[in-house]
Amino acid sequence: SPSPRRPSNGSSRTLSAREMYLFDTGGQYLDGTTDITRTVHWGKPTPLQKEAYTRVLMGNIDLSRLVFPSNTPGGTVESFARRALWDIGLNYGHGTGHGIGNFLSVHEWPVGFQSNNVPLEAGMFTSIEPGYYRDGEFGIRIEDVALVVEAQTEPPFLTFEVVSLVPYDRNLIDLSLLSPEQIRYLNSYYQRIRAYVGPELRRQRLEEAHAWLQRSTEP
């Protein structure tokens, strides 16, 4: 079998603060499977990079906070993740999300947002992952893991509870594009990250990571 790919001086690129980086991460643990993507820029993003990132984030938020009737097919609601990009003539060429199995597949059929997926029901795990890509220039994807839960409506409709607790890159967010509802959602998400992840980092004495988390989740 071929040897695993390793970094080498001949083929590896040097990381710099002049580019965007997309991290598609995940693992399988005793209590669940993760599939989380974050995009970052450590320098000064271009206006297009910042606007595209913000609109991808807006789509992620709009789908994540959506309330919809039970037994709604994912394909019926997935355009909520695209609308902010569509508004300025942008789009992405992949699915908006896929089911996630527990000790099964990271891409677990038949849950998701395609026209041939089953209707969404409480208890399903799915990714929510809008993106935007410019060939040879940069790529953006913001992927969270979400649980389908009952909403506080009568009769009970459905909504999503995002269970991946990782901050978004503040350097790439244009706050002027976000609605008050989207900002409220972000702030409550950041409060949840602090409440759940902060004490665990402290427990493991990861003080540098804890300081980064506090900076990254300021209101």
Automatic annotation (TrEMBL):
Which Gene3D superfamilies did the record assign? Answer: Creatinase/methionine aminopeptidase superfamily
Q: Which GO terms describe its molecular function?
A: aminopeptidase activity
What is one Pfam family matched by this protein? Peptidase_M24_C
Domain (Peptidase M24 C-terminal): give its ranges.
156-219
Database matches in InterPro entries: Creatinase/aminopeptidase-like, Pept_M24, Peptidase_M24_C, X-Pro_aminopeptidase_P
Q: Can you tell which superkingdom this protein's organism belongs to?
A: Eukaryota
Which keywords describe this protein according to UniProt? Aminopeptidase, Hydrolase, Protease
In what residue span(s) does the Peptidase M24 domain sit?
A: 11-149
What family does this chain come from, according to its entry?
Answer: Belongs to the peptidase M24B family.
Identify this protein by name.
XPP2 aminopeptidase
Native source species: Elachura formosa (spotted wren-babbler)
Task: Provide the organism lineage as a comma list.
Answer: Eukaryota, Metazoa, Chordata, Craniata, Vertebrata
- The primary gene name is Xpnpep2_1
